[in-house]
Amino acid sequence: MNVTLWLMLAIILVLVCISAFFSGTETALTAASRARMMSYEKNGDPRASIVNRLLEKKDRLIGAILIGNNLVNILASALATTAFVGLFGQSGVAIATLAMTVIVVIFGEVLPKSISIAHPDTTALRVSRMTSVVVTTLGPITAVVNWIVRLILRLFGMSLDQGAPLLTAHEELRGTLEVLHREGTLVNADRNRLGGLLDLAELEVSDVMVHRTAMRQVNVDDPAEEIVRQVLESPYTRMPVWKTDYDNIVGVVHAKDLLRALHEVDNDPGRIDIMKIAAKPWFVPETTSVQDQLNAFLRRHAHFAIVVDEYGEVEGLVTLEDILEEIVGNIADEHDVEMQGVTTEADGSVVVDGSVPIRDLNRALDWNLPDEEAVTIAGLVIHETQMIPEERQAFTFFNKRFTVLKREKNRIAKLRIRPAQVVVPPPKKAGGPVSALRNEPPVVEYDEDDYIEASQDEARTTEAEAETLAADRVDATEPTSASEPDDRVVDEEATREETRRTGD
């Protein structure tokens, strides 16, 4: 009897170890990185090839592991019950159940799964050969079980056929980049470069172009000397040439072609015909995707294109460098003008020109301001407020407080952005029906601090405007005369009368 008992305990120990193998294998193979396994396979590791082959048929793999795991667990429980019944009688059933539950949960499930989840790739490589043998051995049984499962699901109108993935390849890559960045294994600059490459198909040319208000052009009707001077003083190598009207682009002059022409005429600008050295302009619609435009640049061996809208009006220009900067960030050389428009203040706020693109601001400050509805930061403020704000007017959205520092005509020229401060309103006093019944118009916020800190030419009103503003404030604060009762008093009296009637 003692020999039989020890033999049964030894068999139970072996079965628990096999259960641990199945549990750890399931976790390791499902958590293993497919990309890393592909890399190992290309480097000549045969175990990675086995893992990839097993993962190609996950239903067969999971079915074989579950069959083997349940088989050994049930067998171990049966042997333990037999052994404990022989030792303790009928009470041995409860003792065996309790003991096997603790042993299987700790040593057969939690322990091996914890090890596998901590080192999934290493564990998957180690168990790959043995798992392949098990899957091949239990293959017929697994096929029958899967057939029964599919038949039952079909009765309920369900199917296990693989459909379209929920996420596209770009979305999966983008999610992987965010996870790696959050874990600290991918720096922000690398994330921006890889993310910019994935964004090319989603961006349009209008999102990366140089707007027409910032374009440098030369007039074909200007004297040749003036044209040469403008081209040589420009930090750009290519400049559009217009005639009669800014929207009438008739050519693109390259500085190198101009220098070559000057050399041929003995450096006499008066003998140059600008139209003879200007190249034919290439017009592209503003709705072209950045990825298509990049492919077009590479296909045509061109670096420069004029962007037009649906009516043929010039909207701006786009260059190959503009597209590359969406991937690698700002590309500067000794002739480029340093990018202006973003200044970080000592108090943590940021002063931004309204023309700064939202994508550049997000990259520079690691923000997440949306850029779907607007390209520039000024456009974002106008879109969210549905108005053209006045100077010193402040708004809060996207966890940021935007204060308009300067406005030029209908354009927001400069803003101050700081983190939004959550202000908890004081509790309303009981018995005040006026504030509860009246529909107050939205209050326009003005940031006096920003108004004082702004420079004289950016945020100081003229003397006449200051006098008008002061007069308006006096009118608003002085009590009304007896002949002209205050509307607010009348409203309050009417409200109290209505409340008294309701109470009666």
UniProtKB/TrEMBL annotation:
Gene3D superfamilies recorded: 3.30.465.10, CBS-domain (3.10.580.10)
Localization: Cell membrane
Keywords: CBS domain, Cell membrane, Membrane, Repeat, Transmembrane, Transmembrane helix
PROSITE patterns attached to this UniProt entry: CBS, CNNM
Protein name: Mg2+ and Co2+ transporter CorB, contains DUF21, CBS pair, and CorC-HlyC domains
PANTHER family reported for this sequence: HEMOLYSIN-RELATED (PTHR22777), UPF0053 INNER MEMBRANE PROTEIN YFJD (PTHR22777:SF32)
InterPro entries: CBS_dom (IPR000644), CBS_dom_sf (IPR046342), CNNM (IPR002550), FAD-bd_PCMH-like_sf (IPR036318), FAD-bd_PCMH_sub2 (IPR016169), Ion_transp-like_CBS (IPR044751), Transptr-assoc_dom (IPR005170)
Bias kind Low complexity: ranges: 424-434
Organism: Consotaella salsifontis
Lineage top rank: taxon: Bacteria
Cellular-component GO terms for this entry: plasma membrane
All copies of domain CBS, residue ranges: 209-269, 275-337
GO molecular function, one term: flavin adenine dinucleotide binding
Region annotation Disordered: where it falls in the sequence: 424-504
Biased composition (Acidic residues): 445-456
